Amino acid sequence: MSNNLQVRCAFNTNHVMPVAKYVWHLARCPDKKLREKNKMPIYYCPNNRLHIFLNRTALLDHSRTCIPKKQPQISTAL
Fold first, then answer.
1. How confident is the model over 27-71, as pLDDT tens digits?
2. DSSP string, 1-68
3. Is 39 left (phi over 0), alpha (psi -120 to 50) or beta?
4. Could you say which DSSP state residue 72 is in?
5. CA–CA separation, 13 vs 7, rounded Å?
6. What are the two backbone dihedrals, phi and then psi, of residue 12, each rounded to the nearest 5 degrees?
């Protein structure tokens, strides 16, 4: 992965960061915390929790094209 890839925060498009910092940012984003404090809905894609939407319509539109991640196979052989 290239180090210069940038992503925008789902809660505030003025927040731009390297891909590697995205999860860290989401956990600490003040705009996300404000939405939670005000009990405003946050919609997460069932296939990937990094796909975040602020309205249900956008989530439904996204769900039509989002491809589920493959689940890792767990071996039970000893």
1. 999 999 999 999 999 999 999 999 999 999 999 999 999 988 776
2. --TT-EEE-SS-TT-EEEGGGHHHHHHH-HHHHHHHHTT---EE-SS-TT-EESSHHHHHHHHTTPPP
3. left
4. P
5. 9
6. -155, 110
Cα–Cα distance, 38 to 28 (Å, whole number): 16
The Cα 65–Cα 45 span in angstroms is 11
Q: Which two tokens stand for residue 78?
A: 């000893």
* Residues whose CB falls within 8 Å of the CB of residue 43, separated by 6 or more in sequence, listed in order: 52, 53, 54, 55, 56, 58, 59
d(CA 34, CA 28): 11
* Cα 62 to Cα 55: distance, rounded to the nearest angstrom: 11
Supply the pTM of this predicted model.
Answer: 0.75
Contact at 8 Å (CB) between 47 and 66? Answer: yes
